[in-house]
Fold this sequence. Notes:
This protein is an alpha+beta fold and 79 residues long. It has a domain at 2-38: 3-Layer(aba) Sandwich (YefM-like fold). The chain has helices at residues 6-11, 13-21, 68-75; strands at 2-5, 26-30, 33-38. A three-stranded mixed sheet has the order 1-2-3.
Amino acid sequence: MRISNIHEAKSHLSHLIQLAYEGEEVIICKSGKPLVRLVRYEQGRGKRKPGLWQGQVTISPDFDEALPEIERDFRGEAL
């Protein structure tokens, strides 16, 4: 991890960008307090395609039914 103050960051921005591109985390501080983190940009995975799992997942018929113990607890009934 590289820590840099704002003045140094202004003077050596290209170098700090290169470090971040190579995988090093760069923290830019002001008066000794961290302000921002410079990290390499990672391209997103792209758009999701709905339906890729269609036909591969099943849901139990009793999925929405509450367990008797949970219903009892909600009603405040004793064991």
